[in-house]
Amino acid sequence: MENIRMRTLEILKEENEGIRERYELAKERIAGFKQEVSVREPLRDYFAAMADFIALVTKAAEAVHSGELYRMGLEELSGLNHALYEDILPEHYGTSYGNPSYAAQRLSEYGQLLSAVYSELRSLTACAFEGRLLPVTWAMELLVELYNCFEVEGDYTLGEAREALYYYLHDYMQGFYMASVREKQDPTYTFARDIIMESGLSDPRYLYYFGEYITDNEQRLAGYLDSLPEETVRRMAFTYVDGYVRGFQVMGADFSVKEIVNIRYVIGFERMLRHAVAMFENMGKKVTVHRAPTYLSARSYGRKDGYFSTSANPQYEYDHRNDMALCYDKKMQKAILAAAKAAREYYRPEYAAFAGPAVLEVFGQPEFCPVNKKEAVCRDGQVTERMLETGRELSLRLTDYVKPEETSYTIIAFPLPSIGEKFEEIFAGTIRLNTLDNDAYKKMQQVLVDALDSGDRVRVRGAGENRTDMVVCLHELADPVRQTNFENCTADVNIPVGEVFTSPVLAGTDGVLHVSRVFLNGLEYRDLEFTFSDGMVTDYRCANFPDVQESRRYIFENILHGHETLPIGEFAIGTNMPAYEMGRKYGIFSKLPILIAEKTGPHFALGDTCYKMSEDHAVFNPDGKEIIARDNEVSLLRKTDPAKAYMNCHTDITIPYNEIAEISVLRPDGTKRVLIRDGRFVIEGAQGLNVSA
Predict the structure, then answer these.
(1) Domain edges within the chain
(2) d(C-alpha 162, C-alpha 114), whole Å
(3) What distance in Å separates the CA atoms of residue 250 and residue 53, rounded to the nearest whole number?
(4) pTM of the full predicted structure?
(5) Cα–Cα distance between 168 and 180 in angstroms, integer?
(6) Peptide bond into 496 cis (omega under 30)
(7) CA 412, CA 242: separation in Å to the nearest integer?
(8) What is the rounded distance in angstroms from the CA atom of residue 220 to the CA atom of residue 232?
(9) Strand partners, 476
(10) Residue 691, CB half-sphere, CA atoms under 13 Å: how many?
(11) DSSP bridge partners of 530
């Protein structure tokens, strides 16, 4: 492990030496907070708490620089890890300044802002374990600035405090963005890769070297993988890597000209990832492994982009999801766009060599239904629109550096121990799901595709209490011999195998989509319902909160992502009955990730199509037919008004087989052909899809 420390710190040597004096001065000043009485209570208590936390962060950073971290025993590492996260654990959160409600109660009008500052300071934990003193120093200096100003009794206003946070974010935005892009794109920055490849994975101490919160989940998961036969772990890695490579084949893209593969995963899977990294490197590829962003300016709520561990407290993350709205004016927006451009230009060669992400997701996290707190930062309509505009602009400009039609990806998922006492059985079942026979599914799914191509609409009706009744309009096939509407999707970019999907025509796509209970990006939705007219959301509701408007705001923020409406970007029929049966057998439907859940029935995706920004790139099914349904009326705006063509979101909502009465193809002559009745495939040639094992 000493080699890992030296290699990372050598990369950071010049940067750290340049900031060391400021780091020491800020550290010393903050240590003095607890001995001073120049700031009135209760603000004094806040700064004392922040001083305690900074002392832990700097202790970790210095243990990394001296090498002491890698000489610590398991108990000492565990103690340091617990101390760093103790304040936001659920049992302590009620009296934590990370809790906006408590901060507002204690600090009055300053509570919301100082709770956001606390959250930014907490992001320093990751920096400390990577040995990066620069962002640690920036944040410590922000804390010192706030403290110095509060020493002047009666002369400091909330506006001035907010201004301090604003200019901290604005002035260092380029530094934050450069570090984020470096970690994703630069294969010489090997912090996480080295832990994966060079640690003794049978020694659980390595888990604590990442700086993420380590729970029983990570410990049991790493221990379980360590107990599996080498061939089993190698087969898991091969499925993951092979799906990635085959994704390029499906896309018709040339993998050989790409050099950099980005791995995104969950801590605990290092033994599998060690095999995967070796497989990629044996192909001549270089691997990057980046942390899910922790900075206020970069983090996002929902699906995490990078490596991470079990959340210390999902409510804490939810409470701080909108903190950036405190400072998001037009000037900040320009700073973000300028920082992105500068970082992308600097790493232009690496972007050109970028092949795409290989993602390992997990499921089985403890169920979480958040509390909406009035003290937490909320986004108003103007800020929401500005953020959406920035997201669209960043996405569009990224195509100047990375051509979507030249890249691919893969996603695979496995359960966490927190899924329950049947974890090992479910894990083994998931391995079976991930290695189902592609060729057998391809043949049966082709029967569905051929039947679907015979119609101009598809009708989906729910069973029992499920109120779904949707009519989906399909594109006209000018040449049915050479063209198709549906992609026959096997286990390449989306593992496991099992769906056929299309981008519907929006005009005439109408009805109601309803699911009784579903988890989307870690959040629970009960009795979720959307109404559509011409393929666009016109109404929505759920039963999460007694207040109807609070429930609508929950959907607006977390499914619509601030958009007043969204199109149906995808309609699909999942074909993986073994996945459905696994969910039913173990009672884990609500815990299945979208990746697996979407294979257990029909699903509708709100947002962009599956072909976002590569619509002009021809894609073909295994039978040689071109999939022509790559656009809809919204994505076609890319030709006239690109800013309105993309939503930068894609959320799949699945209706499980047991809630389906019928899925049928409606033909122009008024006849119909039933594909699924009462949750079972009834079409000749596809009935083998009903086999559950």
Answers:
(1) 2-171, 437-509+569-690
(2) 9
(3) 50
(4) 0.91
(5) 17
(6) yes
(7) 11
(8) 17
(9) none
(10) 12
(11) 513, 540
What CA–CA distance (Å, rounded) separates 256 from 237? 20
Residue 201: predicted pLDDT: 95
Q: Which residue has the tokens 């076609």?
A: 636
Q: Whole-angstrom Cα distance, residue 5 to residue 445?
A: 50
Residues 6 or more apart in contact with residue 191 via CB below 8 angstroms: 4, 8, 130, 183, 289
Write the DSSP assignment of 162-221 as a string of letters.
HHHHHHHHHHHHHHHHHHHHHHHH-TT--HHHHHHHHS-TTSGGGGGGS-S---HHHHHH
Q: How far apart are CA 417 and CA 408, in angstroms?
A: 30
The C-alpha atoms of residue 501 and residue 485 are separated, in whole angstroms, by 8
Q: What is the C-alpha separation between 334 and 367, in angstroms, rounded? A: 38
The rounded mean pLDDT for the chain is 94
- Among residues 479, 477, 460, 535, the alpha carbon closest in space to that of 504 is found at 535
pLDDT in tens, 132-155: 999 999 999 999 999 998 887 666
C-alpha distances in angstroms, 616 versus 405, 482, 558, 612? Answer: 9, 17, 30, 10
In 283-399, at which residue ranges do the beta strands (DSSP E only) sit? 286-289, 354-363
Out of 21-30, 163-172, 303-312, least confident range: 303-312
- HSE value, Cβ hemisphere, 13 Å, CA-based, for 11: 17
Residue 519 has pLDDT above 90, yes or no: no
d(CA 595, CA 593): 5
Residues 160 and 142: their CA atoms lie apart, in Å, by 13
Torsion-angle region of 119 (φ positive above 0: left; ψ -120 to 50: alpha; else: beta): alpha
Which residue matches tokens 């990570």? 218
In sign, the C-alpha dihedral spanning 667, 673, 679, 684 is negative
- Which residue is it, tokens 């999942």? 574
What are residue 413's DSSP bridge partners? 361
Task: Please give the angle made by the CA atoms of 208, 524 and 290, to the nearest 5 degrees.
Answer: 30
Copy the structure tokens of residue 583.
């969910």
Give the amino acid at 139. Answer: A
Side chain identity, residue 579: A
- The alpha-carbon radius of gyration of the chain (Å, integer) is 26
Length of the chain: 693
The DSSP 8-state label assigned to residue 516 in this structure reads E
Contacts of residue 656, Cβ cutoff 8 Å, sequence gap at least 6: 580, 583, 589, 597, 600, 601
